[in-house]
Write a structure and sequence with these properties.
Elements (H helix, E strand, L loop, with lengths): L11 E2 L17 E9 L5 E8 L5 E8 L7 E2 L19 E9 L4 E10 L2 E9 L6 E7 L3 E6 L8 E9 L2 E2 L1 E6 L6 E7 L12 E3 L4 E3 L2 E12 L2 E11 L7 E4 L10 H4 L7 E8 L5 E8 L3 E8 H10 L12 H4 L25
Antiparallel strand pairs: 1-22, 2-3, 3-4, 4-5, 6-7, 7-8, 8-9, 10-11, 11-12, 11-13, 13-14, 15-17, 16-17, 17-18, 18-19, 20-21, 21-22
Length: 354
Amino acid sequence: MTAHKGYETLFHRHEKNPILTAVDWPYPVHTVFNPGATRLADGTTLLLCRVEDRRGHSHLCAARSANGIDGWVIDKEPTLLPDPENHPEELWGIEDPRITYVEELGKYAIAYTAFGKAGPGVALALTSDFRTFERIGLVMQADDKDAALLPRRFGGNFVLLHRPTTDKGSHVWMSMSPDLHNWGNHKLILLARRGSWWDANKIGLSPPLIETPQGWLMLYHGVRQTAAGCLYRLGVALFATDEPDRCIARGDSWIFGPEASYEQKGDVGGVAFPCGTTLGADGDTIHMYYGAADTSVGLATGSLRHILGWLARHDSPEDAPRWNTASVLGPTIPPPPETQPSPHPEGPPAATPH
C-alpha cells in the first residue's frame, strides 16, 4: 500500500480485508461488493451485498455478523432477487443498496439501483426483518442512481438524495415526497467540480448521510478520468442540520482511495466504493463497508471527530462550487425526470458504471 507522507489517514483498512469474497458464498456467485450496511436492534451488523453472477446480472444477499468483521452468516439463497415480471425496470438486475432506518415507519428503507432497458434508475423497498420486502418500485427514472433516504421528514416530506446524469453532468440532487411514491421539489445540492479536481465532472453519494452535532456528514465519491481508466475515490462534505440541502463545508481533497492490491485488481480495478456505514457504541467510530474493485468487500474504520476536524482545516476555497449552481451551469438546470413510464430502447447500455 502506498504511504503518503504528510497526508492524514482518516480511514484505516482492516487487517482481515477483504472481509467477504465470492468464495464465502453458499451458492455459486461471481463477485460480491458494494454492500449497504446497518446495525440491527440486537447489535448484529447486517450487510446487504450486491452479488453478481456470470451473466453480469446482480441481486442482493444479506450477511450477518456479531462483530461486523468475521463470523458472517450468509443467507443460503438470494435475499432480494430482481422481479422483472412485475418491475420491468429490474430486467438486468438490482444493485448498490443503501439502507436507512426510518423510525416513523418502524422499517428499513432500501434505496437501490434498478437496471432495465432504459438504463439505471432508483427504486425503493421497505423491510422490517430483511426476510420479506415491500417494493415501492421505481422512484427516479434512468439515468439515476447512488440514492439514499434521510431517516426523518423535513417540512413534512421524506427526503431522497440521488445522482441523476444529464447532459449537464453528474451531480448530487435532493428530492421530496409526502408518501415515498410521488417525488418533486428537486434541488441540486452538490456539484461536481471542473478542471483538474479529483472530483471533477462526476460525483455521487456513497453511504447514507451521517447525522453529527455539527450537521449531516456526507461521504461522496468522485470519479476522475485518466489514461488508464476511471479512479473512484472518497471525499467529504457537511450539510446544515435543519437545512440538509445547504452545504456548509466541503473538503478540498480526497480522503480514501483504491491503494491496496484487492482494490487495484479485480473486475473493475481502481475502485473503492462504500455504500454503507455503521456507528460504534462510542458514538464516534465509523465502520465503513465498501466494494473493492467491484469484486470483494472491504472494511475501514475512522473517527467522526477526526473527520470533522480535518474538514474544518481543509474546507474548499470559495471558488470550489458548493451550492451556487447558477454560476457554473447557467440559470436553468433541468430536474431529474419524473417517474412516469418511459419508452425502453432495444438492448442494454454498454455498462452501468457507479
